[in-house]
Amino acid sequence: ICVVLAAVLGTIIYRISLVSVIYGGGGFFVKKHAKLFTTVTAAIINLIIYHRLAVYLTNLENPRTHSEYEISYTFKIFIFEFMNFYSSLIYIAFFKGRFFDYPGDDVARKSEFFRLKNDICDPAGCLSELCIQLAIIMVGKQCWNNFMEYLFPKFYNWWRQRKHKAATKDETHMHMAWEQDYHMQDPGRLALFDEYLEMILQYGFVTLFVAAFPLAPLFALLNNIAEIR
Questions:
Q1: Do residues 215 and 136 touch, judged by C-beta distance below 8 A?
Q2: How far apart are the first and last CA of the chain?
Q3: CA 108 → CA 96, 104, 112, 113, 130, distances in Å?
Q4: Where would I find the Anoctamin transmembrane domain in this sequence (predicted)?
């Protein structure tokens, strides 16, 4: 948990530093989209850091068996992904706007903690922000994952076969089945882990926050049908 909090804090410092650098010396277009640029890059960094950090910490433990390795890795990556995906949703649903005060509020003037007045919900309420956040995850993220899982392997296999044919002198030679299988992608040691992790996170979105986004079960069903196909 301390490692996750350190990673989140580092990401916040990165975003603040990058925004200040962009506003200090960037062009008009870059300054106009500074927050979008920092948000996208910070999200990519989080996705890269969490998985590599989980593998690194698990390797430091040096588990004796494969099952112990997978259990340790599962525990770490689930904590990282839980903080990455659920922290913003929990904050918007239960904490955002709770510490905001208005002029004349005596409690805010007497308490040091309640002097943080920059956080307030949209005029429509925090439920609308939570709905947008869930829509981005359940629609945008799932569509992107299906795109990467379906089209990227096909492109990668086509590119490897193309390179192999270009390096082969005798094009009339018939390759055996095992020779053709040599050019297939290596699924890796934890090939199915990401699939199970995706299902667990999706189940949490559907059960915990369905009141904010009622269409979440429908998009989860469509995503699972696409995953099966």
A1: no
A2: 37
A3: 16, 9, 8, 8, 26
A4: 3-229
Could you report the per-residue pLDDT of 204-226, keeping only the tens digit for each?
Answer: 888 888 888 888 889 889 888 88
Residue 155, amino acid: F
Characterise 139 by phi-psi region: left (phi > 0), alpha (psi -120 to 50), beta (else).
alpha
Looking at per-residue pLDDT, the higher value among 125 and 113 belongs to 125
CA distances for 18 relative to 5, 50, 63, angstroms = 20, 21, 39
Average pLDDT over residues 124-152: 82
Name the average pLDDT for the chain.
Answer: 76
For residues 60 and 123, the model is more confident at 60
pLDDT at residue 106, rounded to an integer? 54
The one-letter code for the residue type at 128 is: S
Distance CA 206, CA 209 (A): 6
Taking the model in full, what pTM does it have? Answer: 0.67
> Which residue shows structure tokens 């943080």?
116
Q: How far apart are CA 108 and CA 97, in angstroms?
A: 13
| Nearest partner of 137 among 220, 69, 211, 65, judged by Cα | 220
Higher pLDDT, 17 or 115: 17
Domain map (residue ranges) of the chain: 1-120, 122-228
Q: What are phi and psi of 90, to 5 degrees?
A: -65, -40
